[in-house]
Amino acid sequence: NNKIDYDVLLLSSNTLKEETTEYDFITKIIDAQTTSSYCTTKNFAPKLIDIFYDSSQKLLSSYNLYNTINSHTDAVDMIWKKLQPIHNWYCVNPKIGQQRASYSDIEKKSLFYGC
């Protein structure tokens, strides 16, 4: 019956730092990676669109300058980390999705993060 005020709700993630909440089925995200499955509110969506645009511009710029991509700082799941501790980011517990193993255009190899 209680409403959870969220900006982003991750259904799966590679969580590096989280905090417990008053609910067993949800954690507060402080630092998480992967964009495999999430929900966002209509009001927060423009912030994510800005992050997606910023990421695409940085990746394109680094590729054009150096013919390489700096995925460790410029990928969307790295850039959006700055929003996580200061906004209402949560993840369901247990996670209900998983990013499938696949080829990464950014990393130029097949990857499976197990999350």
Short description:
This protein has three helices and seven strands, in the order E-E-E-E-H-H-H-E-E-E. The protein is an alpha+beta fold and 115 residues long. Strand 6 (102-104) and strand 7 (109-111) form a beta hairpin.
Describe it.
- The protein has 115 residues and is of the alpha+beta class.
- 26% of the residues lie in helices and 27% in strands.
- It has helices at 45-66, 71-74, 76-79, and strands at 8-10, 14-20, 26-33, 38-40, 89-92, 102-104, 109-111.
- It has a five-stranded mixed sheet with strand order 2-3-5-1-4, with no helix packed on it.
- The protein is globular and about 50 Å long.
- The model has no long low-confidence stretch (mean pLDDT 87).
Helix/strand layout:
Elements: E1 8-10, E2 14-20, E3 26-33, E4 38-40, H1 45-66, H2 71-74, H3 76-79, E5 89-92, E6 102-104, E7 109-111
Parallel strand pairs: 1-5
Antiparallel strand pairs: 1-4, 2-3, 3-5, 6-7
Number of helices: 3
Structural class designation: alpha+beta
Give the topology string: H per helix, E per strand.
Answer: EEEEHHHEEE
Identify low-pLDDT runs: none
Report the average pLDDT across residues.
Answer: 87
Characterize the biggest β-sheet: 5 strands, mixed
Strand order in space, largest sheet: 2-3-5-1-4
Q: Work out the strand percent.
A: 25-35%
Percentage of residues in helical conformation: 25-40%
In total, the number of strands is 7
What's the Cα radius of gyration?
A: 15 Å
Shape descriptor reads globular
Instruction: Give the CA-CA distance, first to last residue.
Output: 29 Å
